Amino acid sequence: MNKNNEICHCQICGLIYEEIDLGEICVCCGAEFGYDDEEGACGKTIDVYRQKWFDTGAALHYAKSELIPQNWSLNTLKIQLANIGFNLTDEMIAEIEKNSRKR
Fold this sequence. Notes:
This protein is mostly helical. Helix content is about 30%, strand content about 5%. It has three helices and two strands, in the order E-E-H-H-H. A hairpin with a 6-residue loop joins strand 1 (about 10) and strand 2 (about 15). The longest helix is centred in the C-terminal third of the chain and has 13 residues, at about 90-100. It is globular, with a radius of gyration of 13 Å.
């Protein structure tokens, strides 16, 4: 937990962290905390970064991290994203799967 005893989540992928430091890179999506997860112009930065990550097939940035659940899947991602109130639809999952096959 952080100093405020709040659960911390990556604002892009919803992965749970005990504490988030500015400049740290998310092991799941590769976002830089304090930069990629800011609500920038018109509140678009988070959505834009998330979509770019989905366009890569939601490739794990560092799959060997202990923070990444074993047998991570798009269903795991759906649960992670629910942590931050993002609903990953079946259509989005199909698009992510299609993008992952392009890699």
